Amino acid sequence: MLEIGIGEQGRIFIAGRLDAAQTEKAQAFLDSVEGSAVVDCDRLEYISSAGLGVLLRTQKRLMANGGGLRLVNVNPHINNIFRYSGFDHIFEVEAAGT
Amino acid sequence: MESTFKRSFDSLQELFEFTESFLETESVHAADRHDVHFAVEELFTNMVKYNAAGQSDIRLALERNGDHLLVSLIDSDSTPFDVTRSPPVDIHRPIEQREPGGLGLHLTKKVVDSIEYHHDNGCTTIKFSKDLR
């Protein structure tokens, strides 16, 4: 299951599993984001390529208008997936514990 | 340990729970679990997307052989789609040249240790192995 919303300090939080069955929910929320935003991934356990597509689509839209997403508290497994995808070049990514 | 799953993204939660149950029983390390879940989902969703008209359920089989995990996904009502021959992905392109999609098989090859594809008489079998830490 997936939870997504606005948490502490106005940060977006994503929690649970962002798999191919959850992309519609995540995209619907992220489509409402404007400007620059921090996404707290502390409770994000898993992301698939379908979830990566949601993040990329959002980042392209925001960056075209001078904004963007910063992904923080990213667990090591997901950080590997970001690196293998080249997402560490197109997002600002902060690993958990840094 | 094996089971069948309906050809739908709605099966993903059930697929995850089945796989996790096996990995937990085998005391598989968290990092390896993540990689196995990732590969299983990507290969399963490919079968769903590219053979949407298939009538059969999709079979998942999990087996441990010493320090290796062997996983098979079998779609007995499918057209050929060789996942081992997916085009290379240039992950260094700037964001303006990146589009969503196309990463799943690239990433699957990164997180597993070997992958095989067979198609015979409408039946696709994809096998991968993961060396366990």
User: What is the CATH homologous superfamily assignment of chain B?
Assistant: Histidine kinase-like ATPase, C-terminal domain
CATH topology tier name of chain B: Heat Shock Protein 90
**Which overall shape of chain B is indicated by the principal axes computed on the Cα atoms?**
globular
Order of helices and strands of chain A: EEHEEHEHHE
Low-confidence stretches of chain B: none
**Over the alpha carbons, how many angstroms does the gyration radius of chain B reach?**
15 Å
CATH class of chain A: Alpha Beta
Based on DSSP secondary structure assignment, what is the total number of beta strands of chain A?
6
Mean of the pLDDT scores of chain B? 96
Instruction: Indicate the radius of gyration of chain A in whole angstroms.
Output: 12 Å
Which sheet architecture does the biggest sheet of chain A show?
A: 6 strands, mixed
Number of strands of chain B: 5
CATH class of chain B: Alpha Beta
Portion in strands of chain A: 25-35%
Describe the largest sheet of chain B: 5 strands, antiparallel
Identify the biggest protein-protein contact and residues per side. A-B, 26 and 30 residues
What's the CATH architecture of chain A?
A: 2-Layer Sandwich
> How many structural domains can be distinguished in the coordinates of chain B?
1
Structure classification of chain A? alpha/beta
Tally of contiguous helical segments of chain A: 4
